[in-house]
Amino acid sequence: MLKKYQPEYYCEPQLLTIELTDKPGSPNVIPRPEHVITRTNICESALKVLYRLKAAGFEAFLVGGGVRDLLLGREPKDFDIATNALPEEVTGLFRNSRLIGRRFKLVHVRFGREIIEVATFRSGHDAASDDMGRMEDGMILRDNVYGNLEDDAWRRDFTINSLYYDIRDFSVVDYTGGVSDLEKGVLRIIGDAEQRYLEDPVRMLRAVRFAAKLGFRIHADSEAPITRLGDRLEAVPAARLFDEMLKLFLSGYAVETFELLRHYDLFRYLFPETDDCLAKEEKGFPHMLVAKGLLNTDDRVAEGKPVTPAYLFAVLLWEPVRERAEALLAEGFSEVQSLQRAGDEVIAAQTQRVSLPKRFSLQTREIWTMQARLKRRNGKRAERLFAQARFRAAYDFLLLRADTGEDELQSLADWWTEYQEVNIDNRVNMAQQVPSGGVRKKRRRRRKKVAQG
Fold first, then answer.
1. What processes does the entry annotate via GO biological process terms (predicted)?
2. Is 330 within a domain?
3. Which residues are annotated as catalytic?
C-alpha cells in the first residue's frame, strides 16, 4: 500500500495494487475511485493548461514527478504536462507561452512567476532518420522524435516517472509498472539499463537523486551498470552538470545524495580533486567538513532558508583549496594570497567538469579568502569585515570549519559569535583588545635605475 499524506480535504480511497500486464499497448488504467489524486491537489495553472488542451481536441495528461509525488502523498514541486499537440500548436493556444530548448523542445506556459512545462509525446530513436533525433556514441544529442502516449511512456527514464493522470476521466494510466514499483519502494529504469545510461549518462545521477529523495532502493538490474559507466559523465556538458548539482544538493537530501554518489563511485567524476582529498585521512581521522556542510544545507532547506550555490561550492571544494593553500603558505605567500591563488586554481580545474557561473564563483572565492581576514579583527578591521556583504556566509563557513575541529578555530568562531550579539560600544572594546599581529605584507624591492651615459 502506498504511503500517503491525508490533509483535511482527503477522503479515504484505497489504492489497489494492479500488476503490469505483458501485453504491449494495454496499460493498467486505475480509475478515480482507486487512487488518491484529486484536482484539489493540482495547482490551478496546471488545470487551466490541461483543460484548454482538452477543449481544443488534444490529449492532455499530468505526467512525471507530479503524479508520482501525489500518489505518495507528497506535495509536488512542479507540474509537467504531456500532450499530442505539437509545440507550435501549444504556443498557438497560449499567448503566455514560449518555445524553449533545442535538445529537447518544450513549451513553457507562464502564469505570473509560475511556469507549467508542456511537452509533446515523444518516441524512441530507433526510427529516427533525421536531425530531429540525433545520437552520437550512444548519447542522445537531440530528442524531438514525436510519438503517441504509449511511445512516450516507454521512452521515459524510470517507471515511477512514467505515470499519467488523464484529465478526461481522472484516471491514472500506467504502461510500465510504475504503481507497483511505487508501492514496493523500488527505482527501476525502463528498458535496458546500460543502454539507457549510455543514451544519457545524467540518468545515473537522477537515479541517485530519486533514491536519496524518496528513500527507494535502486533495482539490481538498474544498479549494476552504474559503477562501470561513471566515466561517461565526462562527456556531459559542464553547464548541464551544474544544473544537476543544484538538484542533487539543494533539494533537502544532500547528505544521502553525497553518500550514494560516493557509494556508486560517481562523485569523483563530478569533483575529482575533492574526491582525492576525501580518500586521505588527516591526523588519523577522515575529512568531515563536506558531510557536515551538506547536513547544514539540508537543515536550512528544511527550515525554508535560502542556500546559495556559492556556499555549496565553497563546501564541496574547500578540501583541495585548503591543501593547495597550505603548500603555497609554505612557499612564503601570505594566508590571503595563498587562499586567493589556491581558489583560482581549484575553480579553474573544477569548471572543466562542473561549471560554476562567475556570479557564484566570485562569491565562493570571497568566502574562502575571508577565512584569513576574519583572523585580523583588531581596531576597525572587525567593523569593516562585519559590514561586508559576504560576512554572514564567511562566518557560517568559519563555524563549520570550527565544528569539524579544523586548525583549532573554535575560539575565533566564539569571538565572532559574541561580536554579533553585543552592542556597538562593546564591539569596539572587543576589537581594541585583540592584539595587532598578523602577517605583514612584504615590501616590493625597487629595481635599481640603470645609470645612463
1. mRNA processing; polyadenylation-dependent RNA catabolic process
2. no
3. 78, 80, 157
